[in-house]
Design brief:
The structure is a single chain. The relative contact order is 0.10. It is globular and about 65 Å long. By secondary structure, it is mostly helical. It is 60% helix and 6% strand.
Length: 427
């Protein structure tokens, strides 16, 4: 029997990558948790097992090497396969929502019997998705790798680390901030599937025991290796998340990523870099492989006649503007030591957002500590406009001739001062 040494060497090298990335990422995940034994007493029974997940996912990825989907399928066939898969995901999610309606409707006395046919349809769709998923992941990985190579983000023609993702149920994140200032002190990954009441109970325990502000949040992806991606029917968004998380893996091999958890400032820089780069990689990917999915350019707003302010109609609700207004006022109150007043204000604003179609379960210091780190766009949950870090990252990208130059430059920074100095003294 002829031995395929190339395949053996490829699998061994990828196994080495998986092992190395597991060690690096595991360290970044758990260093912070060891600092507070009292917090871990509440979370330990629910904490996500990254080691087990990574071993299982690595086996899946190594098995996909034998598929060679992009070698055996023409480009048009690859595009058709991807399209069929995401149409199936949309149908699957619609059927799951229909099943949920059976179990929540007060008019249905026996939801199990009433939903039997729909549940069978769901199971059939899940079987089809399970069959197609390895091929689709292989296709998208190869196409994204080609995009990254075209952008100059490779070593020897290969992305480093190799670009792998896996669609999987994601863990939740418990975010903990002090009450007197907005700052992410802990981010602990928990098992998924917690109901709203279970989340609220854990938050209450942590808040009462440690006098902090906490929040259990959903995430869309995580920069493990391979990266963890939630199942979605939104193809463009998924590609952006895959690219975003790969950028985290890219940075983890360099000083910027290794310093991710060293301070809230370094987290802001890392997340903002990954957001900017993820969107740019997504746009290049769509333009090359799926031009029909490129969203149309945003239209210039057409002046209303008469203007809104004189027409008697209320202006449209702007979530980002209202959230930024909320953040600025909270920062002011906390800076003055008026913690209880800030918390009462956030609850009033949460109800305001709810009334305007944004059902936030909780709005507190931990909410802003988590969402405010993504500063690729000004405003929203980010801090004051004079906060220089998000603007500095955006400015450095604008000063860089390409995404590759930007990433290679920023990835070798390990303090906020280096970033600010680079922006003030452009090359």
């Amino acid at each position: 029997m002829r031995v395929n040494w190339l395949k053996i060497i490829s699998r061994l090298s990828l196994a080495l990558w998986f092992g190395m990335m597991l060690v690096i990422v595991q360290r970044s995940v758990y260093d912070f948790a060891d600092r507070e034994a009292r917090l871990r007493a509440f979370t330990r029974p629910r904490e996500f097992n990254f080691t087990s997940w990574t071993v299982n996912a690595a086996q899946v990825k190594l098995g996909q090497l034998g598929l060679g989907a992009t070698l055996y399928l023409r480009m048009e066939d690859q595009r058709q396969l991807v399209g069929e898969y995401f149409e199936l995901v949309a149908r699957f999610q619609a059927v799951e929502a229909e099943i949920a309606d059976y179990y929540t409707s007060p008019d249905i006395l026996d939801p199990e019997a009433a939903s039997q046919l729909v549940r069978q349809q769901r199971d059939d769709l899940r079987a089809q998705l399970d069959h197609l998923a390895p091929f689709v992941e292989s296709v998208v990985q190869d196409q994204l790798s080609a995009t990254v190579a075209e952008l100059g983000l490779t070593f020897g023609g290969t992305p480093v680390p190799p670009l792998f993702y896996h669609v999987t149920p994601l863990p939740l994140a418990l975010i903990v901030s002090p009450r007197e200032v907005i700052r992410q002190e802990y981010n602990i990954s928990l098992n998924g599937g917690m109901s709203a009441d279970q989340r609220a109970a854990l938050e209450e325990q942590v808040d009462r025991a440690l006098d902090v502000s906490s929040l259990v949040v959903n995430i869309g992806g995580m920069g493990m290796y391979p990266t963890m991606i939630i199942q979605t029917s939104d193809f463009n968004w998924m590609v952006e998340v895959v690219a975003h998380e790969w950028v985290h893996n890219f940075l983890t091999l360099r000083p910027l990523g290794l310093k991710y958890g060293s301070s809230p400032e370094m987290r802001i820089i890392n997340e903002t870099v990954a957001n900017l780069a993820g969107k740019e990689i997504r746009d290049a990917f769509l333009a090359r492989f799926y031009p029909e999915r490129v969203p149309p350019p945003a239209l210039e707003p057409v002046p209303l006649s008469p203007p809104l302010e004189t027409s008697g109609e209320p202006p449209p609700f702007d979530f980002r503007a209202e959230m930024h207004k909320t953040r600025l006022r909270v920062d002011e109150l906390l800076a003055e030591g008026r913690v209880e007043e800030a918390e009462a204000y956030m609850e009033a604003r949460r109800q305001f957002f709810w009334e305007n179609g944004y059902p936030l379960r909780k709005l507190n210091q931990a909410y802003f500590a988590f969402h405010g780190a993504y500063a690729d766009r000004p405003g929203g949950a980010a801090g004051a406009a004079e906060d220089p870090l998000g603007d500095a990252v955006r400015t450095l990208r604008a000063q860089s001739p390409s995404l590759a130059v930007f990433l290679r430059r920023v990835s070798w920074m390990w303090t906020p001062d280096q970033l600010l100095a680079a922006v003030s003294q452009p090359r």
